[in-house]
């Protein structure tokens, strides 16, 4: 292997290492953002808001290096997929960090709200799940682990369920927390921000599948969407069929002379 190729592969490894570092930065941001929210720590929230510029600059520099590799090295096959996947991961991680910044901004708007035990517990769990998903997504990238990458969508279901439970808890306890409409909206959006972090982790998993197999995630995503639409349509048709059967049964019951209370006497009575 000539010196140019050795240097090129060294640059690819640097991209991988820096993406691991970026993933760690985002994971740490999730934990710190959750703590700032639960502790009502305005200073910690502001530090994270201001510190987002560091993540943005890091992402920009990493993107520029990836584009330079594309332009100068003309990678093909697996190396091309690695760089394209890395670019997508940079975007997904940067957006995840932005979502936690949104959590911090929302925490300032509801500073005077006292969280009940259930609300606090759900926020803490959402933070834990979001952190786990990001770390698992990065692990799948580093290890080229298609099993873990494909499992992220199912793992994300836990975070989706927590977000639904969280919103329901807000509506049940809004009077106890003395929430106005704006406060309730801010509280609900916090759950949405965590849920979106999970979605970004799932997107990373799909791109890892592409990196390893060459199979575009849009193909599998389109197939899943068609399956869901077919299942939904089948459910509607089944519901309509049941309703029609119930209606037919009701008509038959009303028309039947043997029905108790019909007012008619059967033949031979």
UniProtKB/TrEMBL annotation:
GO BP terms, alphabetized: intracellular phosphate ion homeostasis; negative regulation of phosphate metabolic process; phosphate ion transport
Subcellular locations according to the entry: Cytoplasm
Keyword tags: Cytoplasm, Phosphate transport, Transport
Sequence segments annotated as region (Disordered): 226-269
A GO CC term attached to the entry: cytoplasm
All copies of domain PhoU, residue ranges: 20-105, 123-208
Segments of skewed composition (Basic and acidic residues): 250-261
Protein family membership: Belongs to the PhoU family.
Quaternary structure, from the entry: Homodimer.
Name listed for the protein in its UniProt record: Unannotated protein
Lineage: unclassified sequences, metagenomes, ecological metagenomes
